[in-house]
Amino acid sequence: MKIIKKFFLIVLLILVIIGSVIFFKGYQLYKTTLEQTSLSSKIAEIKSNDTYVTTDEVPNYYLDAIIAVEDHRFKKHGAIDIIAIARAIFSNIQAKELNEGGSTITQQVAKNLYFITEDDFISRKIAEILVAIDLEKNYSKEDILEFYMNTIYFGEGYYGIREASNGYYKKEPKDLNLYEATLLAGVPNAPSVYAPTINPDLAKNRQGKVIRSMVEYGYLSEEEAKNIQE
What is the pTM of this model? Predict the structure, then answer.
């Protein structure tokens, strides 16, 4: 019995050491990144872009679509969503492949601001979470959603909802109809796959997921969903 206890204590110690090393690498990435460009400076840079739009300049149903399909508990959790992470792990184990992530909208903003080109997945994830915590401390949920829609990639070289709206539909975001808004809300999940000019059928399939999520979480009625037309 003592040998078994000793064995488990050694395994636990090894895991703690490995975990500490991994966290330290992620923390160092976070620290050096923000030393180069502070969060407030990065946000100011994004906001100074001519293509930047506020949440008041897009239809509410576009914002609802983003939350429904990307992070339906966005307004209820902090920087990370433990429930979403657990669900993603369970789903991936069942599928025997990595086909679902548990990143929150806030984590995605952190990645878009700083870590798009970072190759070390584990260190990036830790750094993302630390930046996401800073975002949640210093900005409102509306602010974070606004940063998200201005930094996500929509394919075809379009960054942010204004470029995507202008590029795909030749109109300003405020003029997007429900069909266009739900289609664009689905594109950032995999821009090279869901860009409407590349794979229109797959883009519509993804749009279907957006619409079903909006119904599931109470943003649209079944009747409204059925009446969405191109």
Answer: 0.89
